Amino acid sequence: MTPGKFVRVSTRTVAVSVFLLLVAGALVTSTGSGLAVPDWPLSYGKLMPPMVGGILYEHGHRLIAATVATMVGLQILVLGFGRTDRTTFRLGLAAFAAILGQAVLGGMTVLFLLPPAVSSSHAGLAQIVFALTATIALRTSRFWSRFSEQAPRATVDPASLSKAFRFALLAAGASYVQILLGAIVRHTGAGLAIPDWPLSFDKVVPTGADWAASGVLAHFAHRTFAWVVVALVVAAALALGKIRGVEGFRRLSTIWLVLLTLQVTLGATSVWTSKAVAITAAHLAAGGLLWITGVLAAVLLSRLGELSQFPAAAGAPASEASPAAA
Prior knowledge:
Layout: H1 3-30, H2 53-81, H3 86-111, H4 116-139, H5 142-150, H6 158-187, H7 208-211, H8 216-241, H9 249-272, H10 277-309, H11 315-321
């Protein structure tokens, strides 16, 4: 295996592993296993407790987290020895710092008995780690090299590019806010505070008496803001699909819209099934993929703008951007 291929395989493996860690965390919350192991960093004073019941989910999540954190740390060495560009290496450092912070927040959630603010921050930081590792995987890929070579030759309307970039940033940002709102709903036990969908207590907007119930405000905020995300993602995906001259944008636009449809469906189904474990875990996972699609779209559009704006100097950045992909 060549050094370049080793870097590509390694970074892709790390990004996928972080996503699987998100899924494992979703299973912990979906099964109510957050305090199945009441101590940290040990589990019942042991390195390996009996893997039964909720302990399987909670301690299994810890084992996966420890493994993935080690992989993110080792990724720094891979990026350094693989002679990746400075920006990618710094992203690797940021990812390792973020996942260490994630581990600390994970421990605090147990030691302080699942405070919603800490648990929600834990969920939010996990998505930042995912975004950083996915961006690293993109920047070290063969696709990034081909994209960087095509970009200087592409005839792109500056107004269309600027519009697509703005919408991608807004859609990604809104998706992240929605993830945080979803985390608050999960960690305050408000997942079924409104038991029907698409209406709320058989009404478009809950009435005064409905608001008195615990969790209704958080649930309704998450549900309402979802439509802001829908509007922004649709606008961003349509603008993205109009970019011509470089590969990937139309396919990314289609994937984005498919993920959006899936996420809305899973959100509704989680209510209809009274938060079935598989559905709620899939809802969180699809939300992460929706967010990361927006992040990668913004990164690619930024790269296109950088290279198409300065075509005479594009050769150097294109070759520096991903020597591992050569």
